[in-house]
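Hey, I'm writing a tutorial for new members on how sequence and structure tokens pair up, and I'd like a real worked example in the thread rather than a made-up one. If someone can provide the structure for the chain below, I'll link this post from the tutorial.
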Amino acid sequence: MKPRKTGSIKWPMNHSEVLQLAQKSIDQYLRHLSDRGVGASVAPLELKEKLNLSLGAKAQSDHQLQLDVQSYLNHAVGTLDPRFMNQLFSGVQPWALAGELLATVANTTMATFEASPVATLMERELVQHLCQFAGWKNGDGIMVTGGSNANLVGMLMARNQLFPDYKKSGVSGARLVAFVSEEAHYSFGKAANIMGIGTDNIRAVSADEQGRMLPEALKSAISESRSQGEKPFFIAATAGTTVLGEFDPLEELSRIARAEKIWLHVDGAWGGSVLVSRKHRHLMKGIELADSLGWDTHKMLGTGLVSSFFLTPHANALRTSHGGGGADYIFHASDAGSWDLGPSSLQCGRKADAIKVWFAWRALGDEGLETYVDTLFENAQTAATLIKQTAGLELVCEPTSLNVCFRVKRPHHVPSAQWHRLLREQLMKKGQAMVNMATRKDDSFIRLITAHPGQNEKILKPFFTDLLKAAEDLSSWRG
């Protein structure tokens, strides 16, 4: 292959012109979002055949790229629509979208204050504001890549706080053990793998019928671990379990953690936002006694993916735990150096995610966000009421938060897990809604998430009608 001639790249259009071109397609998408809904699902190979995603040596025209924008939006899942009930998020606040655009246009990094001065101040303001909701006046924190990363940071902080020598020397001869609920998120196993602790040293603690960790079971597990010569160092409580949306008893767990001198981390990725609601914050009673908290504001507050925070009441503990290196080329001694967030993060280059959260919070304020959360809870109760009033549907349990779990009456010849999977797939193929299913203790059911403020009775009634119609259509299914 002959070497190509080098030279300056000539862009047919500048940044502003390209954004204006793309904005036409985006405006069209947003204007017709309610008509389009979540969009009909397409099998991977079928979608691959429909789209031309090939990359080659030749540049494509701006007109073709605009068509590519339209094509992407035409086949994207409509997560802004209230009929998206699938994951633990739905919808985005308008000003969060504006903040996302600002972060991309500025295209800076959160490693240093000098590279991202305003966004650094925004993130620090957000961290302090969120810490106050947890009852921590002088807390510390950092934005992270998601709830899973917050759980990893919590585990790492616990190790470095309780065993500071391990940061340099590594874990040698000690068997560190972490305790999580049997209902905990799978990310704790990944964190143990990354840290070299070993997934076998993540001990699952029994939960009650509602899915809340049993304090007595935790005490027994810690006692058993110590009797084996192990070193218990970390307890993970959950505020908003993935399946049922339940909250562990934080006050009782914190008493055990303090008595045993073990770090208590709270995975509030899903449920942390109840703290902004005076009506529902009781679900996290005792959070002020914890050592750390993970909180995803994109899940209940509509701040857009990814908006995740790791928070702790221990001032400067993040720098102590994570700091090291970079002083020779990036973290220079200066008046602004103490404001740098890079030493507190596991990342160096990091997008300014704080901008979208700051704008979303600024737009609604504490009071507006409280109303936002309360509306989500009201919608969950509306869904539960409709289920109880509808023949052919049965609640698994009364919803504590936004997870509304229910069964759909099925033919005896179809196993429960297969039946509920078929139902959700039927809705997705027709583009009527996207909802998930779950299996807990051999019981399978539909898991409806009311994370969008627009998921009111006007949306929910047609959803249940469509679901029952799908059940009728599939009643003679034989596989």
